[in-house]
Amino acid sequence: VGALSAELDKIDTRASQEQLHQLAATAGQMGVTAQEDILGFVRAANQLTVALDELGEDGVETLVKINELTGETDKLGLERALLASGSAINELSAASAASAGPIADVISRLGGIGAASNLATADLAALGATADALGQSSEVAGSSLGKFIGTLVSKSDQVAHAVGIDRQYLKGLIDQGNTMEAMIAVFEKMEKMGGFAKLAPIMGDLGSEGARASALFAAFAGNVDLLKSQVDVSRTAFAEATSVTREYATVNETAAALVERMGNSIREFFVNSGVVEWITNLLRALMNLPQWLDKN
After folding, report:
1. Average pLDDT over residues 177-187
2. Residue 80, C-beta contacts closer than 8 angstroms, at least 6 positions apart
3. Which of 47, 62, 61, 39 is nearest to 15 (CA)?
């Protein structure tokens, strides 16, 4: 624990030492046990919460869970997978009217079905950003797109027939793990065929959200170029995994951040030196001074 604490104290950030230690505790609660993995989580989570303040600690935890589901953590390691996810979200926010919070919310809502359908974290982020940029709520986007993805994967023949796509072509995309490309192909056909009507019978009852779900599908079908662009932005940023670090550096170098970091360094000096004990003894002596004067 002492060695971990010493490493955490070396991180130069506007976040307080208490916040860094809380992130380490969060890592432990999530089942991260190896010291290097805990440090990696803290380094990445610190960057994400500073650079993407709307994301928050809950959003970081969500990304960890989704990266585990989609296999990104196994491929990249905990720290890089987090930085990659944060970079995708940061670039998507910069490239459109989407913002980090709703993107992370959609990722969370689609994580299970997305992972089961071979959608990568970067693809889920692109779907979230497209929905938010088009003014669709994350709640409706999560439930409607989740049902759409499930229907597409489990009933690809029926979907292909309904929208006029070659069945083997669509099934091949899905079988090869190109589910996002399959979604785009269906949305393109939906636009040419006048919207969601052809798919509605296959997807079944959408309940009370039916009207809003239809509006969402119409928005996606009418903005396929935006979706394609978001997918490209997200996949590139995820692969590079550097955007959130650059944003973090920019935020961390503002005047306010420099003051906070200076304060952290001063507090760390006092905590890790004999100054605290000296001040404590001095204050005790001052408190006892009136009593000593009375007696003498």
Report:
1. 97
2. 44, 241
3. 47
